[in-house]
Amino acid sequence: MLIDNLQYANWSSKIFTQMREGGVDAVHVTIAYHENFRETVLNFEKWNSWFEEYPDLIMKGLKAEDIDTARSTGRTAIFFGFQNPSPIEDDIGLVEIVHTLGARFMQLTYNNQSLLATGCYEAEDSGITRMGRQVIKEMNRVGLVVDMSHSADRSTIEAASISERPIAITHANLHEWQPALRNKRHEVVKAVTEAGGMIGFSLYPHHLKDKSECTLESFCEMVARAAELYGVSSLGLGSDLCQDQPDTVVEWMRVGRWSKEIDYGEGSASLPGFPDMPAWFQDNRDFGNIKTGLRAIGFSEEETAAIMGENWYRFYRDNFVPSASG
Amino acid sequence: MLIDNLQYANWSSKIFTQMREGGVDAVHVTIAYHENFRETVLNFEKWNSWFEEYPDLIMKGLKAEDIDTARSTGRTAIFFGFQNPSPIEDDIGLVEIVHTLGARFMQLTYNNQSLLATGCYEAEDSGITRMGRQVIKEMNRVGLVVDMSHSADRSTIEAASISERPIAITHANLHEWQPALRNKRHEVVKAVTEAGGMIGFSLYPHHLKDKSECTLESFCEMVARAAELYGVSSLGLGSDLCQDQPDTVVEWMRVGRWSKEIDYGEGSASLPGFPDMPAWFQDNRDFGNIKTGLRAIGFSEEETAAIMGENWYRFYRDNFVPSASG
How far is CA A234 from CA A66, A117, A124, A190, B290, in A? Predict the structure, then answer.
């Protein structure tokens, strides 16, 4: 079982074929960064056209059991998520609508303040807003998972407490290992995982120690440290692979439509584009290296299988369906 | 089994309760006349709120088997349809999106020319358009039924021929019985039913002989005539019940946003509003009268059961799912 809980590639038959070559059973793909509802629907439509065009490589994923179907038919199940709540605009009724269309994760913020919470780039973190509390409740009801990957600390800790179902940090690493703005401090990961939530480890170089030069061993040492602190069952992968995207896309991720000035985010004026991926993780065919690295660092076969996909499978099974009371 | 294949009421707990009192197992309800995509989504949202508020009375219907669930749990299954293709705008990708959200019937026109076909109030009927041919093919693929209730004759006959799956006239009567603009001529009903399609008989007074004064016997005589011409298996009900709607709503149905001048449609300057329903069909509790009338006119118990709901059940079962090749 191999599940990657975050990718935003420039999708093509090449990449879908690489998913099959790499034995990737399921991927959570981002379909909105700054899009409003109608624009997000266009992205759902684009995926529908890919499902129609590549029925032997990919299939739409709505529930954990769809991964079993994907495995038995030799395909990769694609699950959808938003990195921003922009698709629901100011309309709580859209939470159920986007879930019906297939959304399964939604970040409450993408770097900036949103209508729901505070992003990790803001100077002040005022926590979960009035609308944010209502939306978390509605997300809990329908089975849309709260993702706080790009949120600020207080907002994340409050979300973990307010949410009646587990939440997720789909793609980030430990701040103590690499003190990047997007990596997560101990108290944040503790709050999320103690509430039954998960963290998916990122392979995006700005989140790695020594960035593009990060070694596989160092990455796996961080995973081992996280296992000591939070337990193996809270850990998974969320590679943040942005394969084949032009540099204009990372600029758009950072600036969207909210600023007239350039913002380099995790990059810099001298390195404004996508950084090079580490040599041991170039694309979907390289997950075997991570598996090997986890075994080498001392994880058992069972623990390695849990981190590589079984934990996300269990999380999907429990959290993508409506709540028992809903 | 009791299925009414067209209603557009001013929905309330009162009406949902009357559905239960009348033993109505399923209703196809209109959720768009002139709405664009985003406005139609607001109507889906409104229904989601009713499903949440009245879980003991109604449930969302997506496939025929949901009617079995509704029956076994004492509820009415609600199926959605559009009287106009305005919800898909000029975007064929929205066909699959609205099907995913729950739409199961879509009229290609509402009285006027649309992007897809010609409506029954136009002076010239130019048939199915270029986009219309593409959209029918896509509707066939995903399982969204072509409804031609408000379309012109040539467009309807062409749609029945172009469509690879049966189409429907969800709510209209025989033109030879009551020569209203909205009632259907022999060659039109013949084309639809010979291609496996169905007609649902309307109880809207403008479609009835003697309008509000129409007798139950006369209505049932028309059904018997249709059975002779097209066979019992092509017949069902589509009452067009617009219970508790204010007269502003029928004006909006007729004029929408397309005209600055008033258009009385089937009404007149002296009778601009909703006409009175016939005494024997006031609301959802009166379907028993029709059943009695059909038996009295000579239909067998089996034939009556087919017309009252079993035919629509079979039609739903065969046509709401993706095509085998899709």
Answer: 22, 24, 29, 10, 61
